[in-house]
Design brief:
646 residues, 75% helix, globular
Length: 646
C-alpha cells in the first residue's frame, strides 16, 4: 500500500472521530442551553448524520454494508480504516448541498407561504436532491426495505393521488411536515443523547455488571444460563434500544453457557433473541419509537414509561417462564455455585455503575425533560466509574473519545430511518391516505375490533420484518392506529399495540434480525431458531391484545383494578407458557397442555367470569399433576424388601 493511501486512511479515520465528537457535543450543548429553531436544529442533525453515513458506509463494499445492516437501530461500527471511494465523496457533497441551501436561505424559507408561493427551479432541484440522498443514505444503513416503501408511497402520491410534484416537494423539503418532520425531531432531540448514554455506559463496564448480576441472581437455578440471558438482556435493554445490539453483547457469553447446560442450539438462540428484543420495551430507556410515541400523543416520555412498565414485566415473565418450564421438562440443572459470581461481590466491585441509571430516573421524575435527564446520566458515567479502583481503569482519554464516537455512529440508523419515514408521512398527510386507509380498515373489519387488531398486528410484523422498529411504528401510526382508535380504543392502548408488534417483528420469521444474529452465534438453523423464539415469546404476542381490552395494564384506572389485572394477567402468562412448553409441576400430557393454554387465555382475558373459568381449569391440571406426583412417590415405597429367613 502506498504512503498516500495510508495517509488517506488516517485522514479519514481522524475526520470520522472529529465529526462524531462534534455531533455528540452539538446535541449535548443544545440540550443544556436550548436548541435552535426546528429547521436549523433538525437540519444540523441530519447534516452530521449524512456526512458520517457517506464516510462510513462505502458505495463499493457490500460486506461492510451487510455487517452494518445487521444492527437495525444501532448499526455496528465499520473498521476505522475504511476509505470512501470517489463516488462517496461526490454523494457527500451532494448530501450537504441542500441542507446548506436551507441554512443560507433561512429567511426566505420561513417567510414564504407554504403551498401558496411557487417553488423556484433551484428549490425544486434541491428538494429532489434531498429526497434522493435520504433514500440512498437509508439504503446504506438499514437496507432496501424502507427506501422501497418510501418509493411506493411517492409513486402513490404522484400517479394515484395525482399530487402536484411542486406541492409534494414543498411538503417534503420546505416544511417541517416531511423529511424534517416529527420523526427527525425525535431523533435529534431524544435518540442521540440516549444512544450516547448507552455507549458511555458500555464503555464504563456496565455490560459486565449486568451479566455478573444476572449470573449471581439466577445462574444456579434450573436452566440458569437461559435465565441469565433473560435477566441480563432486560437490564442491558435499559441502556440499549436495539435488539441486535443486545444479542451481540449478551449472546457470546449466554449462548455458549446455555448450550453447555443442555439446551439445544436453536433454543439457546431463541432465548437470547427473544430476551434481547424486549429491551426496546423495557423502561426506563426504551427504543427510539417510544420517544416518537410521546411526540405523537403530546405527552411526556415519563408518561410513556409508566404505560410500558407492566407490559414489559409481563413480556419478561413470559420469557423467564418459558426458560424455566423448558429446563424442567428437559431435566436441566443450573451452573455450579463455584463457577458463579457472588451477588455481594458484584455490588462491591461494580454496583456503583447503577448510579447513572438511577440519576436519569430521579431527574426525569423531578419534572425535568427526558433529554436533560439523559445528559445528566451521560455526564455522570465516567465520574461514577472513577469512584472505585475496580472500574477506574475505564476512565482514560481514549475510552472517553471512543464513547463519543460510538454514540454518534450508533445513532445513524435512527437518524436516516426517521428522515426517510418523513417522506412517507409527508405523502400520507398531503394525500389524505391516512383517512382513506382508516376507512378501508374499518370497512374490512366490519366494526369488529378483533379483526382490525389482527390486521394491524400482521401489518406491524410485515413492516417490521424489513425495517427498524421506529419507521415501522411511524407508518403504522399514520395508516392503522387511527382505525383502531375509531373503533373506540383509547389512544395510549392503540399506540402501544402498534409499538409492540413493530418490536416483535425482530423475532418473527422469515426476516427476524435478532434471530439471525443469535443463530449465527449459536451455529443453529435459522428457521428452527426463529420458531423457537416465537414459541418462547408466544405469550408476549398476546400482551398487546391485553392492553386493548384491559387499559388497567397501562396503569390507567384505580389501583385496585390495576393490581387485580396484573395478577390475573401474570397468572395467565405463566399458564400459557407452561402449556406451550409442556411442564407445570410435572411433565404435562397433551390434554393438560391444551387445558393450560386455554386456562391461560381465559385468565388473560379481563372479566370475572373468564378469570374464574381459567382458575378452575388450572386447578384441574394442578390437582391431576399433584395426584400423579403422589402416585410416583408411593410406588417405590410399596416395593418392600424381601426379608431373609434364618
Amino acid at each position: 500500500m502506498s504512503i498516500a493511501a495510508i495517509n488517506h486512511r488516517w485522514l479519514v479515520k481522524y475526520a470520522l472521530i472529529a465529526i462524531s465528537i462534534a455531533m455528540a457535543l452539538y446535541h449535548m450543548w443544545a440540550i443544556a442551553f436550548g436548541a435552535s429553531e426546528a429547521v436549523l436544529f433538525r437540519g444540523t442533525h441530519l447534516l452530521f448524520a449524512l456526512v458520517l453515513v457517506f464516510l462510513l458506509y462505502r458505495f463499493t463494499s457490500k460486506s461492510e454494508e451487510m455487517a452494518l445492516v445487521a444492527s437495525s437501530e444501532h448499526p455496528a461500527q465499520v473498521p476505522r480504516t475504511s476509505v470512501p471511494a470517489l463516488a462517496d465523496y461526490v454523494l457527500l457533497v451532494l448530501a450537504v448541498t441542500p441542507i446548506v441551501y436551507l441554512f443560507v436561505n433561512y429567511d426566505y424559507i420561513v417567510n414564504r407561504i407554504f403551498y401558496i408561493d411557487d417553488l423556484t427551479p433551484i428549490d425544486m432541484a434541491m428538494g429532489v436532491l434531498m429526497t434522493a440522498i435520504v433514500l440512498e443514505a437509508t439504503r446504506r444503513v438499514i437496507g432496501w426495505a424502507l427506501p422501497i416503501t418510501a418509493l411506493v408511497f411517492l409513486f402513490y402520491g404522484l400517479f394515484i393521488a395525482k399530487l402536484e410534484p411542486m406541492r409534494l416537494l414543498d411538503q417534503l423539503f420546505m416544511t417541517t411536515e416531511g423529511i424534517f418532520g416529527i420523526p427527525l425531531s425525535v431523533s435529534a432531540s431524544y435518540v442521540l443523547i440516549f444512544v450516547l448514554f448507552g455507549s458511555f455506559m458500555e464503555r464504563t463496564g456496565t455490560g459486565q455488571l449486568f451479566m455478573d448480576f444476572a449470573m449471581a441472581l439466577t445462574g444456579h437455578t434450573a436452566g440458569g444460563p437461559g435465565k441469565v440471558s433473560v435477566v441480563s438482556s432486560s437490564l442491558f435493554g435499559t441502556i440499549s434500544g436495539s435488539a441486535v445490539a443486545n444479542v451481540m453483547v449478551d449472546g457470546p457469553i449466554s449462548i455458549p453457557l446455555m448450550k453447555r447446560s443442555g439446551f439445544p442450539p436453536h433454543f439457546a438462540a431463541g432465548v437470547e433473541a427473544t430476551a434481547s428484543t424486549g429491551g426496546q420495551i423495557m423502561p426506563p430507556i426504551m427504543g427510539a419509537a417510544a420517544f416518537v410515541m410521546a411526540e405523537f400523543l403530546a405527552v411526556s416520555y415519563g408518561q410513556v414509561v409508566i404505560w410500558a412498565i407492566i407490559p414489559a414485566i409481563l413480556y419478561y415473565v413470559a420469557c423467564f417462564a418459558a426458560v424455566h418450564f423448558e429446563a424442567k421438562r428437559r431435566g436441566l440443572m443450573g451452573l455450579p455455585r463455584s463457577e458463579l459470581p457472588r451477588l455481594g461481590a458484584v455490588f462491591r466491585v461494580r454496583g456503583h455503575l447503577f448510579i447513572p441509571v438511577c440519576l436519569i430516573l430521579v431527574v426525569m421524575y423531578s419534572g425535568y425533560s427526558a433529554p436533560l435527564a439523559a445528559l445528566v446520566g451521560t455526564l455522570a458515567c465516567f465520574p461514577v466509574a472513577a469512584l472505585r479502583k475496580s472500574t477506574r481503569v475505564y476512565v482514560n482519554r481514549e475510552n472517553i473519545l471512543d464513547a463519543f464516537v460510538d454514540g454518534a455512529r450508533n445513532a445513524l440508523g435512527v437518524a436516516t430511518a426517521c428522515a426517510c419515514a418523513g417522506i412517507v408521512i409527508g405523502v400520507v398527510t398531503l394525500s389524505g391516505l391516512g383517512i382513506v386507509f382508516t376507512q378501508f380498515v374499518t370497512h374490512l373489519a366490519q366494526e369488529t375490533l378483533l379483526l382490525a387488531l389482527v390486521l394491524t398486528m400482521l401489518a406491524g410484523i410485515v413492516l417490521g420484518m424489513g425495517m427498524p422498529t421506529t419507521p415501522a411504528y411511524i407508518i403504522m401510526t399514520a395508516l392503522l392506529v387511527p382505525a383502531i382508535i375509531k373503533l373506540g380504543i383509547i389512544p395510549p392502548a392503540a399506540h402501544m399495540f402498534a409499538f409492540y408488534f413493530a418490536v416483535l417483528s425482530a423475532i418473527t420469521p422469515p426476516v427476524a434480525l435478532a434471530v439471525f444474529a443469535a443463530a449465527g452465534i449459536a451455529k443453529a438453523d435459522l428457521w428452527a431458531s426463529g420458531w423457537a423464539a416465537v414459541k418462547i415469546g408466544g405469550p408476549g404476542f398476546i400482551v398487546p391484545f391485553m392492553l386493548i381490552y384491559e387499559p388497567a395494564l397501562l396503569m390507567i384506572g384505580d389501583w385496585t383494578t390495576i393490581v387485580g389485572a396484573f395478577i390475573t394477567a401474570s397468572s395467565g402468562i405463566l399458564l400459557f407458557a407452561a402449556g406451550l412448553h409442556g411442564y407445570l409441576m410435572t411433565r404435562a400430557s397433551p390434554w393438560q397442555r391444551g387445558v393450560l393454554i386455554v386456562a391461560g387465555l381465559l385468565l388473560i382475558d379481563p372479566g370475572l367470569i373468564t378469570d374464574i373459568a381459567g382458575a378452575g381449569l388450572a386447578a384441574i391440571v394442578v390437582l391431576s399433576q399433584l395426584a400423579a406426583r403422589r402416585a410416583a412417590a408411593v410406588l417405590p415405597s410399596e416395593r418392600k424388601p424381601v426379608e431373609s429367613t434364618p
